[in-house]
Amino acid sequence: MSTTTKKVPLRKCIGCGEMKSKKEMIRVLKTSQGDIILDRTGRQNGRGAYLCPCEACLEKALKTKGLERSLKTSIPPEVIENLKKELNAVDEK
Question: Do 54 and 91 meet the contact criterion of CB atoms below 8 Å apart?
């Protein structure tokens, strides 16, 4: 009898480029309506991109346009502000 270990899903941070387990990351989601939100459950439908839960990675992803490339859309400044506020709320927990 062989023992099988459960495979841990890894995702790459679009800010720093590090591979981490899916549970450690925060998913930024573009919904079918074109809204850009933080997906805390990781299960909502839409195009997703993963970030480490720190503001430095978000800044890097915005600076290199990695987030825009991953979501295949341009991101308005007010949405960026909302993402920063939500990320700070997650960071404090």
Answer: yes
Between CA 30 and CA 37 the distance in angstroms is 7
Strand partners, 47: 30
For the domain 10-92, what is the CATH superfamily, name and number?
YlxR-like (3.30.1230.10)
Give me the amino acid identity at 39: D
Q: Are 38 and 28 in contact (CB under 8 A)?
A: yes
**Residue ranges per domain, the chain?**
10-92
Instruction: For residue range 31-60, list pLDDT tens digits in order.
Output: 999 899 888 888 899 999 999 988 899 999
Measure the CA–CA gap between 26 and 10, rounded to whole angstroms: 12
Strands (E), the chain: 10-12, 19-21, 26-30, 36-39, 47-51
Which residues, in sequence order, are bridge partners of residue 37?
A: 29
* Predicted structure pTM score: 0.82
